[in-house]
Design a protein that fits this description.
This protein has 260 residues and is of the alpha/beta class. It has one domain: 3-Layer(aba) Sandwich (Rossmann fold). Helix content is 30%, strand content 20%. The protein is built from seven helices and nine strands, in the order ββββαβααβαβαβαβα. Strands 1-9-8-7-6-4-5-3-2 form a nine-stranded mixed sheet, sandwiched between helices. It is globular and about 40 Å long. The relative contact order is 0.16.
């Protein structure tokens, strides 16, 4: 029987409890950039830097979901918190979002979204010293694109983070996505809700079976948008924050050398 990917559920606080008090941070505005993507289109982008005095540990290129942009609330929160943890975070708009079009199939090697993400990756290379690692990350559709690009470029990428992988929407299968996930040589983290109907947890775990370098962090009660069932009273961003916590913790583990 093939080995299952590592699955972490993490400590779960009671849903009705208040979050622990954290020190207040003053966040500077993200820096506005422009990236030249596929079809020579100018793509708006935002760069979140670590706080003053905190050296960058590496870079993260963060891609949005099919119906969003780089300014969607979850991406902004994730970028700021990852930056606070010491990461330089670049988020950008896919060309279809700029042109008000529709996302294309990322499994196609000529997909413009893959070229958009590759352009963002090239920009990140220009912002960081060569010795620092670069990760690709994305929410839903953006995570799919990140997976295909990472599988293509190989060792250039230190790892991939996907916030909700839509591995099998109702009535559809995505064998090309499964193949890309299995072709990845870099470490992989997928933060998946246990109620995700676009990416059932059992289907995702089967797709990653035999890949010990893949980690699935399961969020109890979360749907694809990291929301709880109707009628459950909790602050709206509780599961979003847990998803970001999982990513920060995973990055810490990748950044810590194994003891000899």
């Amino acid at each position: 029987m093939p080995e299952r990917p590592r699955r972490t559920d993490g400590p779960q606080r009671p849903l009705h409890s208040a979050p622990p008090t954290r020190p207040r941070r003053v966040w500077p505005d993200a820096e506005a950039l422009t990236i030249r993507g596929a079809r020579d289109r100018e793509l708006p982008a935002l760069l979140d830097r670590p706080p003053d005095g905190v050296p960058a540990r590496g870079g993260i290129v963060l891609a949005h979901g099919a119906g969003g942009t780089s300014r969607m609330a979850f991406l902004a929160r994730a970028a700021r918190r990852l930056a606070a943890a010491g990461w330089l975070v670049l988020r950008f708009d896919f060309g279809y979002a700029v042109g008000r079009g529709r996302p294309g199939p990322p499994e196609r090697p000529t997909a413009p979204e893959r070229r958009d993400l590759a352009a963002a990756l090239e920009t990140m290379h220009g912002l960081l010293p060569d010795r620092l690692p670069i990760y690709l990350a994305g929410k839903s559709y953006g995570g799919r694109v990140a997976t295909f690009v990472a599988a293509e470029v190989g060792p250039e990428i230190a790892g991939v983070i996907v916030f909700g992988y839509p591995i099998e929407p109702p009535g559809r299968t995505r064998p090309a996505d499964v193949a890309a996930l299995r072709a990845l040589e870099a470490p992989l983290l997928v933060v998946q809700g246990t109620r995700d109907t676009l990416g059932p947890l059992a289907v995702l775990e089967r797709a990653l079976a035999g890949r010990p370098e893949a980690t699935v962090s399961a969020l109890a009660g979360a749907d694809h948008s990291y929301r709880l069932p109707a009628g459950v009273h909790s602050r709206p961003t509780l599961l979003e924050d847990r998803a970001i916590d999982a990513a920060i913790g995973w990055l810490e583990a990748q950044d810590t050398p194994d003891p000899a």
